[in-house]
Amino acid sequence: PFSITAHYLTASRPGPAEIRTETIRTGRTLSTGAASLVQYDAQGAPVERLRVLASYGNLDTLDPEVRTSAKPPALPPVEQCLGSDDAPD
């Protein structure tokens, strides 16, 4: 993917969930898709918890002069990361 954004809309709950996907646009050089994580509340109504939007393409089709300087973010060691027990209620 060229780009991925995630929007956390509400806190997820332990239990069943479904992921709904949608193709937003299919183009010659760039395609965009979306996915939503949905859970159901006590009354059975769907509640969207997370929405992701991603743009995909093939870097091999770009002009050879195009370069990327993107680097992955620096992350702390796993033992310094917060777990789900640290999340607010």
Protein architecture, described:
This protein has 89 residues and is mainly β. It has a domain at 1-59: Hotdog Thioesterase (Thiol Ester Dehydrase, Chain A, Roll), CATH 3.10.129. The chain is built from no helices and four strands. The protein has strands at 3-8, 18-26, 30-40, 46-57. It has a four-stranded antiparallel beta sheet with strand order 1-4-3-2, with no helix packed on it. Strand 3 and strand 4 form a beta hairpin. The protein is flat. The relative contact order is 0.25.
Number of helices: 0
Helix content range: under 10%
| Cα separation of the termini | 33 Å
| Global mean pLDDT | 90
- Give me the strand/helix succession: EEEE
Q: At the fourth CATH level, what is the homologous superfamily of the domain at 1-59?
A: Hotdog Thioesterase
Proportion of β residues? 35-45%
| C-alpha geometry | flat
Give the spatial strand order of the biggest sheet.
Answer: 1-4-3-2
Rg over CA atoms, rounded to whole Å, is 18 Å
Largest sheet: 4 strands, antiparallel
Give the structural class.
mainly beta
Outline of the structure:
The chain has 89 residues and is an all-beta fold.
Descriptors:
89 residues, Thiol Ester Dehydrase, Chain A, four-stranded antiparallel β-sheet, 4 strands
Helix-strand blueprint:
Blueprint: E1 3-8, E2 18-26, E3 30-40, E4 46-57
Antiparallel strand pairs: 1-4, 2-3, 3-4
